[in-house]
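Work Package 3 (structural annotation) set out to generate three-dimensional models for the target panel prioritized at the project kickoff. During this period the team completed the workflow that converts sequence records into discrete structure tokens, so that structures can be stored uniformly alongside our sequence database. As a representative example, we reproduce one entry of 193 residues exactly as it appears in the project archive.
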Amino acid sequence: MINLQTKSTAYKINFSFFALIAIMILLRDKNIVILNLVGCMIHEFGHYLACKICKVKIKEVSFSCTGFCIRKLETKSLSYGNELFILSSGIVVNLLISIFIFIPTNEVLHLFGTVNLIIAAFNLLPIKGFDGLQIRDLIFARNVPLENFRLYYKFIKVLDIILFVILSLLFINHGNIIYIVPIAFIMLRKFEE
């Protein structure tokens, strides 16, 4: 792991990040790798801007096999709306880019729009390490009474299946069937919990 430190922020680069890039280069052409990395950076930049708007200090920026990640300092003092804004800002930025860039006939722009849509969809997954789990837990912790937990749990399983189907259809539509295997593995592990 490579560690760098500025005044208030730590930067950590895990070697798994480089391994992921190497695997992506072997699986696909270099354009898709670059577009994926740019899409991930844009996603995290959305979180970064939201943190700056809400005056939340960034504790750590890490790079690993799951991509880039920004960790915030003390969020317990944040309001519900500000925390939801920060958590969802990366997904919103990816969705906005995919909407505005998806339409043009330029092949690279169309691919970049697709990549941003997939990044947003992945981050909506309610899995540890993704924004979706934190957003879901924040919303339900604030709005679901404890006595409705079983109903909540069943609802979550249905939601997980819907998200899996949407991601699978996106990958099949764009000829990236190989990516369904890790999604299926993640979802099967999720259902075992």
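The mean pLDDT is 76.
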